[in-house]
Amino acid sequence: MNEFDQRPWGNYTVLDEGKNFKVKRIEVLPEKRLSYQRHTRRAEHWFVVRGIAKVTLNDREFLVKTGEYVDIAIMDKHRVENPDSKELLIFIETQTGDYFGEDDIERFEDDFGRIA
Fold first, then answer.
1. How far apart are CA 98 and CA 102, in angstroms?
2. What b-and-e string marks burial along 14-43, b requiring 16 or more CB atoms within 10 Å of the CB?
3. How far apart are CA 43 and CA 38, in angstroms?
4. Rounded distance, CA 90 to CA 108, Å?
5. Contact predicate 24/13, CB 8 Å
6. For the whole model, what pTM was predicted?
């Protein structure tokens, strides 16, 4: 059974996972964004399958369109945002590393008060 988690910005479903990887389908609601964060033990690859992602990577902003991707290295500060006012943003996130727990998130900015 796939793990599903509802979040204030949308949701994610874990599609597959193994010792050194985890694959998620992530949906971001219109005009919502995830926290600006980094990880110490995993890298990420985001492939956009629907919509346009506004990505912040190490303080640089750019758009990633459907069919395009972005790679996030370990320790890169990153954020994804859905700038569209109507359409859902959907992307596939492939994590690689040696640990994938939610406690490997250092948040710098968050719209939902999740900074310690």
1. 13
2. beeeeeeebbbbbbbeeebbbbbbbbeebe
3. 9
4. 23
5. yes
6. 0.95
Per DSSP, which regions of 1-116 are E strands? 4-7, 10-18, 21-28, 36-38, 42-50, 52-57, 60-65, 69-72, 78-81, 89-97, 106-109
CB 35 within 8 A of CB 81: no
pLDDT digits 0-9 by tens, 84-100 = 999 999 999 999 999 99
Structure tokens at 72: 């996030």
Distance CA 82, CA 18 (A): 29
* Structure token pair of residue 102: 């939610």
Question: Which residues, 6 or more positions from 17, have their beta carbon under 8 angstroms from its beta carbon?
Answer: 23, 100
